[in-house]
Each structure stands twice: as C-alpha cells, then as structure tokens.
N5-carboxyaminoimidazole ribonucleotide synthase
Amino acid sequence: GSTIGILGGGQLGRMLAMAAAQLGYRCHVYAPEDDSVAAEVSARFTCADWHDAEALAKFAADCDVVTYEFENVPVGPLAALPQDKLAPGTRALEVAQDRVNEKRFVEELGGRPAPWRAVDDAATARAAVAEVGAPGIFKTRRDGYDGKGQWRVGADGEIPALDLPESGLVYEGFVTFDCEFSVILVRGRDGEVCFWDSARNTHEHGILARSALPAPAIVAEQVDEARALASRVAEALGYVGVMTAEFFATSQGPVFNEMAPRVHNSGHWTIEGAVTSQFENHVRAICGLPLGDTASVSDRIVMENLIGEEALAVERHLSDPAAHLHLYGKAEAREGRKMGHLTRLG
Ligand code: ATP
Ligand code: MG
Ligand code: MG
C-alpha cells in the first residue's frame, strides 16, 4: 500500500513517518491529542477519541495499512476494522497492554519473568508480598510507561499507599541484575526474523537514560536465549513489524521484564548506527517489502535521551561533531519528558 496509518501521535510515530516518507509512503496519524509531534511530519492528522469506532473506521478506510506507535490503543474499536489491514495484529496489543497477560503469555512460551502475582485489592496486595517476598514492585497492569504507575516495596516488606486502578496491579519481585538489555527484532510478512544488536540500557528514575554498544559480556552470553524467546513470542502472535522485549541480565540468565509491540526508545541508535533503522524496517515489514540489513555500522554507539530541560542546550549538543541530535518538537520541556536524543558513533 502507499498510505500508512499510524495510531498514536508521539515521537515514535514522528520517526516512523519520517522513515516512511523516505520510502515514498504517505502517513496519516490518528491520536487523541491535538498537539501531536507525529502529525507535524505527516500528510494528514485525525484528532479523535480512541473509542470513537466510527472515526477510526473512516481513518482506516483511507489507509492501506494501519500500525501503532503506542501500545495502549483500546482493542475494542479495532475489532471492527478489516484485520488484514492491521500490522501487527490486535492480539499483540492485547498481550502487551496488560502486564498479567504479557507475563502469562511469555511463561507459556518458556520465558522467565520475575516472580509475580496479580493484585486486585489490599488483601491480594498483602498476600502477593508475603508469597513473592520483598523487595519488590507494584505496577499498574495497564497504561504504565517511563516508570509511572509503580510503587516500590523495600526489604522490610512494608506496603506503600497504592492507587489501585480498576484494571488492577501486579506485584513482582525485585530482580538483582548485572545490566538491562532489550531484544529488538523485525518480523516480515513471510515470517523472516532479524535482530539488531542488543545495547546495554541504563534507566534513571524509571526512564531510559541511555543505550550503549557494545554491551557487557554478560549480554553477549545471554542474548541468544533472549532472542529465542522473543522470536517465539513474535511467531506465536503472527507478528509483523518491529517488536521489543526488555530483559534483565542476571546470574541466573535472562529474566524477561516486558515487551512492546512497536519500535522502541532503546532502538533509536539504529537510525545512524545500523544499516537499516528500526523505523525503516518496521515500514518495510508492514508494507511487505524485503527487510533491510540490521547490522551495526560501528562497534561503539551511545544513544542518550534528552529529558526535560536537557534538550534546551542545543548549541552544546551540536558542538560535538560525533553527535547526531534529534529533537521531537515538543513545545514544553517538562520534567521527565522525553524531548529528544543524541546518538554518538565511534
Ligand atoms: P517503559 O518506559 O520501558 O515502558 P515501564 O513504565 O513499563 O517502562 P518497567 O520497564 O516495568 O516500566 O520498569 C522501568 C524500570 O524499572 C526497568 O527498566 C528497571 O530498571 C526497573 N525495574 C522494573 N521492574 C523491575 C524489577 N522487577 N526488578 C528490578 N528492577 C525493575
Ligand atoms: Mg513498559
Ligand atoms: Mg520498560
């Protein structure tokens, strides 16, 4: 098809639309916010309610393929669309937008998350901490990102005041890890799977701060097992496009954290650092084109997120000749907001 519909209007959609434009596709963005940074670089923009099935159907009718840059799109209204237009399919969203569904799905495929329990109320919260042990973390089952919707439990097992949403929480044991890494893969319509190199991901205050290659040796030792799990997940979902799985590298092997049915912040380095970026390969996959080479073009690559006011020092960022600066065009440099990133090669 020649028109790609993107559900979600953030920076991931913006970078997808830019990659799509390079390949000659037009993008239409559908998002609830009226100040979408993806809309600024795309041919058309629909600002609508996620639950407005009529608006969604009209949007999809104008597109040859519809994809997501945001995993929390409600699946109800998507069910009414021609399913062969959606890539990836709605099953991937159903699994990935609920931490309990996700953990169960991955466990059935032989993956190992941290020990966990579903939590619905104060009694199940107490039982979860007693059974899983402390320290640990309560997380909202749905809608969490950048560490939002999480409450830590210290070694004393004392339960903090929880803001319990209707969809519930999950409690998981705290994982002692050497480092974090993600497996980013692309799966084509013919089932071909390619992986990018796995960087070491460092989080600060629950937000990804940087992704760096080469990752420590422990990642190289554990990445094959992690990749095998991620490809079983992608295959079981009949997945088409880029998919990400986050892992903790531990002395017990790779522990699954969560997945994202989309391009991922920890893959932004692929824009300059790989022969084909995650964004271009997502477009290629959903449009049925041959996949591009995922090989890294340098053995030392660092992607650093620019959070809040860090993005305002534009001249300093540009003064480093090795740095590629990306700014997402967000109006307000709010604290904790991802405003852009820098990638350095070599
Ligand atoms: P994202 O923006 O990646 O979607 P999120 O809000 O879904 O983030 P998680 O990935 O679950 O949150 O957690 C954010 C970070 O908190 C992790 O990358 C990790 O550094 C830390 N963390 C989360 N769960 C655990 C755990 N069980 N044990 C140790 N650290 C954890
Ligand atoms: Mg997440
Ligand atoms: Mg995460």
Notes: DSSP finds ten helices and 17 strands in the chain.
